[in-house]
Queue: 3 jobs
Job 1
Amino acid sequence: MYVKRNYSLWMTVRWSKKSLINGLIYSALIVFLYEISPIPFSLPWQPISVIGVAVAFFLGFKNNSSYDRAWEARKIWGAIVNDSRTFATAILSLPGSEVVFSWKKEMIFRHLAWLVALKHALRKGKSWEHNLPVEKMVFTPAFKEEIKDGLNPEITKYLSPEEWEQIQTYSNFPTQLLKRQSLELEKIHESGALDSYKQVWLHQLISRFYDTQGMSERIKNFPFPRQYASTGLWITYIFCALIPLGLLDIFEQSPAMHYWLTVPFSGIIIWIFFLVDRIGDFSENPFEAGYNDVPISSITRVIEIDLLEMLDEKDIPEPYPVENGFLM
Amino acid sequence: MYVKRNYSLWMTVRWSKKSLINGLIYSALIVFLYEISPIPFSLPWQPISVIGVAVAFFLGFKNNSSYDRAWEARKIWGAIVNDSRTFATAILSLPGSEVVFSWKKEMIFRHLAWLVALKHALRKGKSWEHNLPVEKMVFTPAFKEEIKDGLNPEITKYLSPEEWEQIQTYSNFPTQLLKRQSLELEKIHESGALDSYKQVWLHQLISRFYDTQGMSERIKNFPFPRQYASTGLWITYIFCALIPLGLLDIFEQSPAMHYWLTVPFSGIIIWIFFLVDRIGDFSENPFEAGYNDVPISSITRVIEIDLLEMLDEKDIPEPYPVENGFLM
Amino acid sequence: MYVKRNYSLWMTVRWSKKSLINGLIYSALIVFLYEISPIPFSLPWQPISVIGVAVAFFLGFKNNSSYDRAWEARKIWGAIVNDSRTFATAILSLPGSEVVFSWKKEMIFRHLAWLVALKHALRKGKSWEHNLPVEKMVFTPAFKEEIKDGLNPEITKYLSPEEWEQIQTYSNFPTQLLKRQSLELEKIHESGALDSYKQVWLHQLISRFYDTQGMSERIKNFPFPRQYASTGLWITYIFCALIPLGLLDIFEQSPAMHYWLTVPFSGIIIWIFFLVDRIGDFSENPFEAGYNDVPISSITRVIEIDLLEMLDEKDIPEPYPVENGFLM
Amino acid sequence: MYVKRNYSLWMTVRWSKKSLINGLIYSALIVFLYEISPIPFSLPWQPISVIGVAVAFFLGFKNNSSYDRAWEARKIWGAIVNDSRTFATAILSLPGSEVVFSWKKEMIFRHLAWLVALKHALRKGKSWEHNLPVEKMVFTPAFKEEIKDGLNPEITKYLSPEEWEQIQTYSNFPTQLLKRQSLELEKIHESGALDSYKQVWLHQLISRFYDTQGMSERIKNFPFPRQYASTGLWITYIFCALIPLGLLDIFEQSPAMHYWLTVPFSGIIIWIFFLVDRIGDFSENPFEAGYNDVPISSITRVIEIDLLEMLDEKDIPEPYPVENGFLM
Amino acid sequence: MYVKRNYSLWMTVRWSKKSLINGLIYSALIVFLYEISPIPFSLPWQPISVIGVAVAFFLGFKNNSSYDRAWEARKIWGAIVNDSRTFATAILSLPGSEVVFSWKKEMIFRHLAWLVALKHALRKGKSWEHNLPVEKMVFTPAFKEEIKDGLNPEITKYLSPEEWEQIQTYSNFPTQLLKRQSLELEKIHESGALDSYKQVWLHQLISRFYDTQGMSERIKNFPFPRQYASTGLWITYIFCALIPLGLLDIFEQSPAMHYWLTVPFSGIIIWIFFLVDRIGDFSENPFEAGYNDVPISSITRVIEIDLLEMLDEKDIPEPYPVENGFLM
């Protein structure tokens, strides 16, 4: 997530330079062909403009949906923050005073293990994502390290080696960690230190973690439907392919100008439409370990700080760093 | 669900070739009639373009609604994942230690039976769906097999023959399976191993399964209202019928060109509008056993794996295969 | 609810023939007046087209809202299905084994009485609805019978004559039926067969029925605000009144044509806009006993079948019939 | 709330006659100045039409938000209906049989006192509302009386004089009435007639009333943000100011006509845009004691009837009257 | 939040004068260059108008999202009002009569401490906010004082010096205050004056405060995605840069006029588009201590008054003042 006020125009252009350059080259080519060809193949602008409106609608719909996906992802991780605080508070205050502190700490640590396991699980690449190689994340070196190191160094801070080893025999680590939490609660219940009523409330909190985990996985595993994304892309291509042909027709009336004005003007229109498409495209998958991601690393860190402070731990980690304007 | 980054332009064209070809033929016909007829029946473009905007609005609304239906369907099945994990965890940890493991396993197996029964029930054809014959699902052979084999081989893995036989006497299998789950809980409650409080929480989980089942059935049984779909279709037809007439009027000013330019240009515009309509049309029914479905087979498999691993079963099935880019 | 794939073009035209014919007559009249009048009162098209865009926006908003109303109505009745199944399951499994089966059956029957009472209450006409006389429902004879017969034959299947008589002394039958359910639960609680905890859960289910009943009544009793509906209608009228005047101006340049082309072209545009308005108008009130209603009769039947099967009744009614493509 | 099918065109025009007349006068003035002035200050229409599209977007957004506010207000009051029925049913059936009926009646009466107190509180004027003087509500005489009489005659039907006097020492009557309900429940709990579990459920219902009360106050106290409303208004003004200038340019080509055609045509376009703006403006505040309000008086009456019938009271009030097509 | 009916046109212009002036200067410059340059670099208007439609779409999307953010923020703080009332009522009525009043008062005071701590935490500047220096808040002197004084004077009214000191050792004050509330409840529970069931209900209320706190932090910490905001800004810039070039082309046909008409007309169009962009921009961050904020200071005051009145305190603060039309 970018946290400065605005991307500069220069960054924006550089980021989408491919479509700008291709647009210019393509337009120049059309003008050149038009010049050398005996056939005046220009097209009237009016019908093109109707296509333009339809494309604008489609891109609007796509951007809206992408934004909704990102915003929902952020909401889900917001809920994880809230429920984590509630859960830790509940673990600290609801069981009877005969429950030892070390058990409470273990529960909260296992919760943090669930959290980091989920964070890393959400960043495995998908066939529809951009899958930028991690080496290219040059703007965010600390984040690059985190991705490279993987789950192991983070989870072993919170889980005993035996338990970590056992969890690794399963397919979905977070799911099985939550099951373990539930069995631990039953143990305390059987010992008499947690009545049935409080146990169910704690189980309902675990149910909420299953919910937020599953909702994150849903956004991760169900892309913006590819048929919509592809249609949007192809009609943008067709519309842009028609633009210089339409401009030729308009500029034709003042032949002196059209050699050099059709090309930049056409290039700019093409670039605007591809830019709008690309913005949606790059915001679609909020967990793809890219610069526009929902910042789940820093959210995780916020939860770690709050929960470790609740345990009055001494060794509180720093807030996640902002690197070159990016908070990941 | 297609899981590659984009449908190729070629696939897109092939999939909607009918409207492209028809559009071209129709336009050619109009041009031909215009040539041979003494009446200059072309139409001005400006009013057509207002119709175009209205049609673009309508299609935007239709696409939006279709997308919402698909996304809601995915959310419902995401909730089924979450609740299934919660339910299995609850069955394993909430009843007292005097409850035998075989009962717990039976409960979780009956839950999986409910799941596969629901999956198959959602795939029975509806009069407003596309009802592609299953033999034509050539891109996804494994899925084709699953549909052909039907519910029986899947449900008998999880249900005793007697129970399965009894369930078949009812109209709605999943509904009656959940009632059975509830009666089983009461049995354990009467034996004293599950207090009233935990029983109610488990009953609330069953209530959630009634909810998600009913919500799936709602999307299945209540189509995007046919009056909206039909209106969208007919006004698209009328708009497209007018397009070549309007282009004729524009191209008229340069008669040398209009024989061959009206036809492809008109064909492309017609194709774009029908493509946008068709995308919505094919995304409307997320459970019609077609390529753009919400992938409930693979979601079912994910649940099976998680729950069988919770039971520490040995025989864990493989994740559902991606076939030619499709995950069903 | 229409359940075939699409209304045919012919049905669509016939259903909205009034606006097509009026549009044609009006346009012909304008052309005629223009011919005989010495004043050339045509109007430029460009400003009309801006009005057209504004009207398209407004109709889009109206259609969207109508659709949302229908979809919400369907969701509410989906929730009634889910909660009914949950409630019946709860009645069958939660009370202690000392509770006699006849009481359980009575509770579930009274619930079905609530359901049919609600169904009929939702179909009383409102001053803003279309109020098509029931005799005109020629496509759905079975449904026509149901409406004519009214509540009595349906509710007496599920309620004793004494109770039915007593309920009729109140204004709102469903409300008082639910109160009765609640008092019955207290009776069982006082007898010791239902602990406080389960009683509250059952009361919460009754609370959900109050919710869904009240939500249905809200949609029934609060129309799409008439100020929006009227504004939409009047600006459509004004826009359509201007259309032939604008076309005259365009066709003027080729006088040979405008006698016969202005009229059909104008008629088609007028028809399209009125059709789009009319679709929204006829989908606005999802419980007006019309062809586009949410099919609450068949949903009611689904619940009856499921609940009677749960009671292992012998006399299970048939699913609701589809008549001429309509499921009511 | 208007409850007839449509406002007549005449009512609509009369209601917005100011903008129609002003639009005509302004257009006439421009035409007159254009005639007498040596400077041909007309403007090209094309750029004006782009502004028109932007204005149409903005008004669409404003109307949408206004509608959402009204609809949410209606939902909240729908929830008040549902929760009131649930609460009354709970008061009648959950406490043990040793609780006297007079206490139950007192609780339900105090609930009705909360309801009417909330109704009147929502109708105090706000600085951004239209604040039509109550004397001008000529179409709804019964409603006018209700507003004039104020809270006192309604609340004293349900509250003892002592309690009413005490409540008046606080700022927010409904809030303190609910606190009182909660203390009453504790009293019954301490007497042993309401176990802890049922008490909490009843307290949760009181929490719901705090929710719906607070949600009503939120809509009442937080207007559609004035920066959006004002921007919408000012850009509509600018757009409308430009309209006759643009029309002059178009009509210029046929000078014989433009004296008399620019004026009415321009007036109609101006009127349409102001009408669309005004509709949103007048639907923005659903509790401003105006004709387009959410009908909270009649909803209150519905609740009174249902609850008094549950108590088997003899003196049931009549449903709220529809006056001249308005239900308030 | 502005609470008068409309910002005056003058205020609106003054607030956005920068874009109006820049637009005029830029347009004048273009006209000047066009005059002195031998190259006729004007551009056709039609393609510019398609860009205009795309920009209008994008700004519509941006304004919509900004509004949704503000409205959600208001909803969250509405929920804080409701839950605070419920919580205070619960503290006063649910614990047994052996609990001393001073403990109840302490709990409610600590809740108010949480509230003011949250209010101040939400007003720390963010890198993407406008961060208007507090000295410039000349219209709202009382609010300026509040911001300058900071948290300390407000929180010490509700928290003992020792507790306040201890809370300051943590990163997130509100989080740790809620944990403290939960531990206090356990203390009362262990003393026997609050049964397990009521304790869990009170813990659920604390969970709701964690939710609303976290939701406020989510809106505060997750801006409207900067990639969308920047794209919107840059395409508005490009569109506006093209406007005078397009107008030149149109006015060219009547050269006598274009010196002085292109400039103001172009300036007005540029200003409208930047105004619409700016409105969204300034409504995006509802907690940035600016004039368009959600009025959390006055909401806090409302809660303080209600809760102190519930405690029958003598020293009730005044409602928050409206200063120059602003309620903060």
Job 2
Amino acid sequence: MTYCVGLLLSEGLVMLADTRTNAGVDNISTFRKLHFFEVPGERTICIASAGNLGVTQAVMNLLTEGFESEATGTIESLYTVPSMFRAAQLTGEAVRKVWHLDGEAMRQQSIGFEVTLLLGGQIAGRQLRLFLCYSAGNFIEATEDTPFLQIGEHKYGKPILDRAVQFGTAMADGVKLALISMDSTLRSNLTVGLPIDLMVFRRNAERAEINRRIGEDDPYFRMIRERWSAALRDAHRAIPRPDWMPESTS
Amino acid sequence: MTYCVGLLLSEGLVMLADTRTNAGVDNISTFRKLHFFEVPGERTICIASAGNLGVTQAVMNLLTEGFESEATGTIESLYTVPSMFRAAQLTGEAVRKVWHLDGEAMRQQSIGFEVTLLLGGQIAGRQLRLFLCYSAGNFIEATEDTPFLQIGEHKYGKPILDRAVQFGTAMADGVKLALISMDSTLRSNLTVGLPIDLMVFRRNAERAEINRRIGEDDPYFRMIRERWSAALRDAHRAIPRPDWMPESTS
């Protein structure tokens, strides 16, 4: 499986993805799931992908190399789309194109056509936006009310985001919270694994501010993991035991 | 949906279950999911149930009123079984009996036969045990290595248990951690709802020590929710921002 999260904050965009893929528990690999389309000063677009690797790679290839859009009749790619909304539409079209090519054959092999994508970024002069595209090629968008979107194994890491992430959250705190959310997922689900890829884009910037791979040895992520563990331990220890329970013997 | 958790600790057994059921999002009700079979000094057995309400109620009725076991040819109930292992077998038999009665008709209505049960307790002179019974009527058992089992919406509340619960955890701390785990689930998933039911049984005791319903106004649970929220907020605020990120503008 996979865990990816995108935060649309007043200051900018944070996207984080793990790299573990598995075709059965005895076939585990590392594949980049955070994909990056940048022309400095002109566009910064980032996609995080979850689902069947054959499908997500096919979609990424179409979006990179371009394909004839049924909607516009022209060859388009994420390097040519004029807006993030059009980028989301094109991403949905790419998903549907792969479904038309491979969906029925996959179904005959009892393989589900599974793909979800987080698509975030900004094109010069346009809005910074963050979308979540589904297997059907339709999509939803993050808003100020709900400024984060997740794909893959999203439940373990959701409580901390539900509690702490708001549209006004500072970007550095957003990065920290996304990493904490990833840590909770890594600890509870073996199909999500290090290293993780992080992209940070400040609203209206010329280019991504951070595009960084974080592995087991990353000092900052290690520190987060250790301090978060210690803080949780201290937190539950500091909460008094129920006063309606007899004192424990241990 | 549902969230139930059982902790098998050196001191005893903790079981916690929410009460929300939903037949579609526009049909939400409160049903007790923590069921209690006790003959003081002789047996204390507790079942937490998740899945289709018609199925779980049918199973509970069979286990309460008794039915002719195919395995033994005698009428048995949770009030007659001689051991917790036999209780788990009988629970599995009850699940399969309901499946034989209703499974095919449910399938024809495209309704999945979903049921999972946590079964914990002790019969005088025998071991305290905790089982998880599946839809197929088979079951697994908690051990010292893995002293907690969950059913229903288990992912939101798993990280804190993964980090903090061990077989040697004191029972009062187990109650606290189960309530924190429930709180994380309640906050992130609307299909899990208050009130919640708590059962605490001390190993080799005459009867359950606590059998308590906890609602919105419960002072201890309110305190846990508030202090846990505050502690998490303080914890992530206390972690330094990444040193490889420029200072935030906000």
Job 3
Amino acid sequence: MSALTNDQIEELITQSLEARNFSYSPYSKFRVGAALRTVDGKIYQGCNVENASYGGAICAERTAFVKAVSEGHLRFLAIAVSCDFNQYISPCGICRQFMNEFGKNLEIFFVNADRTYKRAVLADLLPYAFGPEDMPSK
Amino acid sequence: MSALTNDQIEELITQSLEARNFSYSPYSKFRVGAALRTVDGKIYQGCNVENASYGGAICAERTAFVKAVSEGHLRFLAIAVSCDFNQYISPCGICRQFMNEFGKNLEIFFVNADRTYKRAVLADLLPYAFGPEDMPSK
Amino acid sequence: MSALTNDQIEELITQSLEARNFSYSPYSKFRVGAALRTVDGKIYQGCNVENASYGGAICAERTAFVKAVSEGHLRFLAIAVSCDFNQYISPCGICRQFMNEFGKNLEIFFVNADRTYKRAVLADLLPYAFGPEDMPSK
Amino acid sequence: MSALTNDQIEELITQSLEARNFSYSPYSKFRVGAALRTVDGKIYQGCNVENASYGGAICAERTAFVKAVSEGHLRFLAIAVSCDFNQYISPCGICRQFMNEFGKNLEIFFVNADRTYKRAVLADLLPYAFGPEDMPSK
Ligand SMILES: [Zn+2]
Ligand SMILES: [Zn+2]
Ligand SMILES: [Zn+2]
Ligand SMILES: [Zn+2]
């Protein structure tokens, strides 16, 4: 069902778990890691970066996305997200909105700390999305 | 199916359309209005407020929510959202995330400029939401 | 030096302290209140409203601003900000950016829980601001 | 006056101008680039990444910061910011707030498209900053 092989999924999981290590989260103490795979097979890691003004926080998923975009990538296959617990962490609505800009077919893996996971597709996590096609100015 | 009567829905629609008038949207020129009904029947209107730094923008829905919260309301029944076009405008992911903090059963009306509408429930617009129950610090 | 009389300053302080009561801040447990005075003498109160996704948080100052804008106000004289401590709380950079959209001469009162305060002007808190005049699209 | 040599400043300027090329800014059509130098001499490039929901936009400066943080860097010397015009573009308040988390002595270069520039220090761009030391929970 996934466009990724099992080995590619396992690699993405490994990299999302590793990405937690650089999390800057002194306020929530909730470390999150993400790993984003581009259509051409490159992987970008991201972690959450918080701020004393809570609204300034940037999630792990968006960190991975801006890294990739700033190096010339605009098309993505899949992202894995993990934290330090077994709770199938899913992207927040802010990140879903951010991801939606780059395509609705993105596969998303909610990864437990023990590597078990659930799989979803962005279109199902943000139905009736408000996207680029809704903005007359584009 | 809705917890609101037809008259209450029509009133919410009227107020969301009226709320567009105070939209501050010089950058997108995309006026949005929202009207939020609390469980005890009070209605708060909101519009989008943009900023030269685009990331500073606050949507109409969140404007309505913070108005209500800052006056002591934490439980809501429904929100209507409208713009200047017939495009069934739906809340962005940022707003869905913001709303989710206050309950998953919120009814959401996507309102066209001609008053026709679609109805949805927040739980269906943000499945597998990352919410208060996911934060260990709470 | 202030455009406000002492009585007007005291009233703004009182309302900013009162506004803390509706703060929704289960994550930081840091209650903030704000009171914003329009040029025509109306006062809007705001509190911080947080979210499980920390980046979704909206500060007390921005709450007060969107309330006022959504009711037709675009010109402001002064804002007072307070928390539960004696620490001369000042607006975060996000809020300074948001305020800057509506004029650089805004007076800002950093209010202690014991009502003592410092006064500043937005232009001094956000020098070389990036504002509407910097955006070619406006 | 700068902790950087003239050659290092010129390199940072070059990289900030180059970083504009991957800007994703279909809404503002305002391309911004940034280059951030860590204390140990590594440079991270960032561009602005916008969203159909304007509030989802992430500026070039924050892109550069989260890239660096997600690769283990927490201490920085300087950042250069540029756009396509000669207007001494300065970081918005959101970015100043984000930067402040990592130290007040950061040098900031406002770079014109023709490579001329102004220099500032973060402490002067965000006086009375609300920072980590103001949050009791840290
Ligand atoms: Zn997120
Ligand atoms: Zn929204
Ligand atoms: Zn703030
Ligand atoms: Zn910025």
